[in-house]
Amino acid sequence: MAEAADFQGTSASPARRWLRRTGALLAGAPLLAGLMQLPAASPADAAATDASQAVSGAGSVAVAVNSLTPSAPTEGDTVTVSGTVTNKGKQTVTDAHLDLRVGPLLDTRSGIDSVAKNSDDLQSTLGQEAGDKYAEEFSQLSPGVSQPFTLSVPVDELDLGQDGVYQLAVSLAGQTSTQPWEQTLGVQRTFLPWQPEEADTKTRTTFMWPLISTVHMTAETGSDEQQTPVFHDDELAKEIAPGGRLDRMVTLGKDLDVTWVIDPDLLASVEAMTDRYEVPGEGDDTVVGDHQDVAKRWLTEVQKAVADKEVVALPFGDPDLASLAHTGTSVTGSLSHLKEATDVASRTVDSILHVKPTTDFAWPVNGAVDPSIVKVATSAGADKVIARGDTFEETGLSYTPSAPRPIGGGTTAIVADGRLSTVFQGDMTSASTATLAVQRFLAQSLTLGLQTSRQRSVVVAPQRTPTASQAQTMAEAIEALQGATWSESQDLTSAAEAKPDPAATTKVPSASSYPSSLRKQELPRSTFEQIARTQTKLDKFKVILSDQSRVVTPFGRALNRAMSVSWRGRQSEAAIYRSGVEAYLDGLLSQVRLIDKSETKLSGRSATIPVTVQNNLVQGVEHLVLRLSSTNPTRLEIGGNAYEEQPVTVSGGHSQSVKFTTSAHANGRATVVAQLYTQDGQKYGEPVTFDVKVTEITATVMLVIGGGVLLLVLAGFRMYTQRKRAAAREAAEQEAESGGDDVDGPRNPDAAEERPRQESTDDSRADAPEQPSDPAPDTAPESADPSGTGERVDR
């Protein structure tokens, strides 16, 4: 009872607690002797007493406000509050009644924050009851049991005075068996905005509605003509399916007057799902995704939702601007990826949604900025940076200024209101939490509007990826605000063009003021080093391709995704993604290579050596140069020099043999190196090294062989002559024998002997059959096919 005398909203001081305890001891001294004569209490009785005291403590009954309608009442409305009461203690609460109480006017934004922080504190002011006839009674509340309630009070009965925000409390009073007197056992405070008449000067409010997801697509594509995309998971299908997070964002946002802020990567990923796509299966296998209809439906709904609305396109993949500024700029080429991501953003959104987006806004994480972040954010062409009031703090003003702040260099900081932007964070799955968030949002908005009669533009930049329940709560708050009397909607571009408040600060926070909690989540330097390494490999690869777009586009977008804000807090997953992109590129690079060769034998002074280039890609390669070099040109020259180069063009899925002319000067083994180069002189792939064994024939050996051949020719000629003569004699004898039987008179024996000899001298040379030893008329043609690996290469 002594604590009841303390000032409400304050805790008892140590001195006051000591006085109360001392007084209690003195008051109980006369009874001490008598009590000493009584039997000692059993441990069970003592435990029961302690339990009853705990049950009767503050907050033993939880009051939940699940709905409050209307959120911003006007004249003639009836305020209806519904919810539940739950007995959290171990004692039954009896004679309980629930009342609606209106507290004092809250005229500061910090005052609203304080009430929201201590919304169930029994020690704080409760306000006056609306009246017994509007109360609800409970005969008893059993431990652990929840009971619903509904309280309805005409707004005229609440005695609301001037315009502003009033504390509205639902309190439950009752008693227990151990403390049989009425006491407040539970309370829940919320806010009631009150401005029944239209404001003379309304606050122009811009609400950013983000359509952003995490990274889902890889750099890998199929070898078919359509380049079937490969996703590293199928989670995006769940988000865009009916009831999913992104489905709710579109369904809720289409009826709201908001500015859509979209990551083009999300649209590109969903569009890829409208046709054939693949997702991981068991092991290393992939399976065909089957959510094409879901993807088509979602894109159609997005197109309808953004029609006639402002659309702001973030750079492709939503790159982490703060990480780029703090760790990425020290790595060469990092900012070029931001420029590419910005350039492709507009084309992507326009081609899919058929609207021309705005691309001159940059949105760092949580709106936290410093000079380096602003510099990076504007390096790709954006001239407006969305900051937030809790990092871009205002000093010296008693009111919240308009959002635009010129910060120099033609750049404007759009400072979103910190309180309005963060009110929807946290778990919004319970109706009570969501209702309190909506009322707090409206209360802050009205209080801001009543701070001054100046026309102001306010921007609300919520969390990047709201959950479905957060999106639902945001939509309820926006609907209530759009129907309120003190605010009017405005798109983001109009807010940026509003007249800046000359009294507002334009100084960008220093680097030391950047929140350490955000800095710990940034992408490390190794992220940008790996991206740069992968880009270098891609630059080397693309120059040899006949169709560069099949590789440049998927890998370029994958590198944009590797810098995404969505990797914050997921460093291991980010590293796996980046390594997967680089490993896949390495695999493609290895598809164009030189075939290994074993030792080659070279006989004679000169010969050709074939080297085979294999292309296992589906497209042709060109702009390659094959260089064959001799490590010992004094023994073996190639093309008359130490090396020779030849251009290479190979169709997809084929191999090409390139022949090089060699000259040998001495016998022995010479090492030869084959290496592919791009046309700009960069090495491509691994070299192939092999040995050439030279077995050159000397002049002495050639003379010996020549002499032997000459002897063989002379011997053959003599044999041929002898055979011709023998054939002639045989023919003459046969003719003589036949002539002895002639009946026409006597022969002249001398004439008979001369004629066959004359015939053998003339006719036998033409008619005699060819002998085996005669020389062949010509040699067989030399094969033009390249020798295989390890084969002998002849002159």
From TrEMBL:
<feature type="compositionally biased region" description="Polar residues">
    <location>
        <begin position="507"/>
        <end position="518"/>
    </location>
</feature>
<feature type="region of interest" description="Disordered">
    <location>
        <begin position="730"/>
        <end position="795"/>
    </location>
</feature>
<feature type="transmembrane region" description="Helical">
    <location>
        <begin position="697"/>
        <end position="717"/>
    </location>
</feature>
<dbReference type="InterPro" id="IPR010916">
    <property type="entry name" value="TonB_box_CS"/>
</dbReference>
<keyword id="KW-0812">Transmembrane</keyword>
<protein>
    <submittedName>
        <fullName>DUF6049 family protein</fullName>
    </submittedName>
</protein>
<keyword id="KW-1133">Transmembrane helix</keyword>
<dbReference type="InterPro" id="IPR013783">
    <property type="entry name" value="Ig-like_fold"/>
</dbReference>
<dbReference type="InterPro" id="IPR046112">
    <property type="entry name" value="DUF6049"/>
</dbReference>
<feature type="region of interest" description="Disordered">
    <location>
        <begin position="489"/>
        <end position="521"/>
    </location>
</feature>
<feature type="compositionally biased region" description="Acidic residues">
    <location>
        <begin position="733"/>
        <end position="743"/>
    </location>
</feature>
<feature type="compositionally biased region" description="Basic and acidic residues">
    <location>
        <begin position="744"/>
        <end position="768"/>
    </location>
</feature>
<dbReference type="Pfam" id="PF19516">
    <property type="entry name" value="DUF6049"/>
</dbReference>
<keyword id="KW-0472">Membrane</keyword>
